[in-house]
Amino acid sequence: MKCQKCNARLPEESMFCNICGSKIKHIQSEIVITDKIEPSEIAEDSDKEKSKKVNAVRNKNTLNKLVVATLVLLAVIILVAIVYEVVLRPLATYNSALELFDNEKYKEATVIFSELKDYSNSVQMIKECDKGILYIDAIQDIEEEYLESAMLKLEQLGEYKDAKSLLNETGKLLAKQRLAENYSYAKDAYKMGDFVNAKEYFSKVKNYKDSSKYLKFIVILNKYRGTWDDSRFGEEIIIDGWKLTYVHYTAHYSGEMLIDNYTIKLIKNQVTCGNGKVLKIYKNQFNWNGVTFTKKSDSVYVPQLPVKYVPAEPQIGMTAEEVRNSTWGSPEDINTTRTEFGVDEQWCYPSSKYIYLEDGIVTTIQD
Asked: What pLDDT does 12 receive?
C-alpha cells in the first residue's frame, strides 16, 4: 500500500506513514483506482515483461538444446548401428569363420565365408576350404584303403600341405595293394583250376612271394590240358584244370557212352590221378589204367550224355498223343461214341484199365 500524501510504500495494515507521518486512510477494497500511472509502476511492469521474455528465451534455448541432444543421440545410435552392421558384425562373422577354418571345420567355415561374399578375402578362403575338404577326404580314403581315389584327390591338391609326399607314399601303398590283390586273384584262380587266369595274374606279380613257383606249376599242368584219346578202345580223356573226365564210348557210332570224373593233383611236380598213379607225358602221350592216350587237341569240351526220355503216368487233362507217350502207351482197343455234343472214347488196356477221353482230352482214368 502507499501513503496518500507522499506516495511512500508502506506495509499493509499501516496506520501512519513512516515518512511523512500522515494518517493512512484504508479503502475497503484495498484497491486504489486512479487515472494517473506512476513511473514506478511502469518500471515494475517492464521488469516483469523482461523477466518473462528472458524466461521464455531460456526455456526455448533449453528446449532447443534438448532437441539437439536428442538428435545427436539418435545420430550416434544410427552411426553405431551402421558401424556394427557394416564393420563389426562382418568382422565378427569373418573371425568366427577363421576360427572354424583353423580348427579344420572346413565345411562349416565354407558356409559362413559364402554368406560374407566379397568381404575381405572370403572368396579365396572358400577355395582354401575346398582344398581342406579334399585333403581330409584323401586322408580318409587312405585310412579305408581306397588308395586309387586318394591318389586322384592328392594329385588335385598339388603343393597343398604335405599332399605331395602323401601322394608318393600312397603310390607305394597302392603298388603293394595291387601286388597283394593280383596274388590273391591268382591263388583263387589256381585253386579253381582256372590256370589261364592264374597264369595272367601270377605273371603280374612274378617276383611277389611264391608266384614264380606257381608259374612253374601252371607250366606243368597246362601240358595236360586238352583232349586225349585212344581210338582203338573208343576212349577219351579231357583234362581241364583239376578235373579229368573219362569218356568211354560203348557204341562209338551211336553216341552211347559212359562218363566218369576224377580229380588230378600235383605232387612233387608230378601229376597224379585216382589211386595216386603218376600221369607222365612222354612224346605227347601218357598211360592211364593200362591204356595209352595221345594228345588229340587243346579243346576241353566234354560231350554230354544224351537225355533219356522218361515217360509219365497218364493224367487227367492229357491229350491222346500224350497218353500214347505215357507209361500206359497205346490201348488194346478203343470204343468210340459220337453224339451231337462231341466224341467220347474209351481206351481199353490190359488188367481192366481204362482211360476215358472227351474230344481228345482225358477226363477219367480207371485203374
From this structure: 74
Asked if residue 344 lies in contact with residue 356, where contact means CB atoms within 8 angstroms, the answer is yes
157-195 pLDDT per residue, tens: 999 999 999 999 999 999 999 999 999 999 999 999 999
At residue 41, the pLDDT reads: 56
> Starting at the edge strand that comes first in sequence, how are the strands of the sheet with 333-339 ordered?
333-339, 342-349, 353-358, 361-366
Sign of the CA dihedral running 16, 21, 23, 28: negative
- The 3-state DSSP class for residue 71 equals helix
Q: Give mean pLDDT, residues 286-302.
A: 88
> How remote is the C-alpha of 7 from its chain's centroid?
114
Tracing cell 497205346 back to the chain, one arrives at 330
Spell out the residues 6+ positions from residue 7 whose beta carbon is closer than 8 angstroms to its own.
Answer: 38
Go through 310-329 and write b for each residue having 16 or more CB atoms within 10 A of its CB, e for each that does not: eeeebeeebebeebeebebe
- The phi and psi torsions of 125 (rounded to 5 degrees) equal -70, -30
End-to-end CA distance of the chain: 161
Residue 204 C-alpha cell reads as 603280374
How many helices (DSSP H) and strands (DSSP E) are in the chain? 9, 12
**Cα separations (Å) of 317 from 19, 322, 345, 357?**
161, 10, 14, 9
Contact between 112 and 128 (Cβ < 8 Å)? no
* Tens of pLDDT, residues 222-233: 999 999 998 777
Q: Where are the domains of the chain?
A: 223-297, 320-366
Q: Average pLDDT over the chain, rounded to whole? A: 86
> CATH fold of 223-297, please?
Lipocalin (2.40.128)
Question: Please, which residues have CB within 8 angstroms of residue 316's CB and are 6 or more apart in sequence?
Answer: 362, 363, 364, 365
Select from 304, 47, 236, 225 the least CA-distant residue to 217.
225
Contacts of 6 (CB under 8 A, 6+ apart): 17, 19, 20, 22
pLDDT of residue 102: 94
Identity (one letter) of the amino acid at 227? T
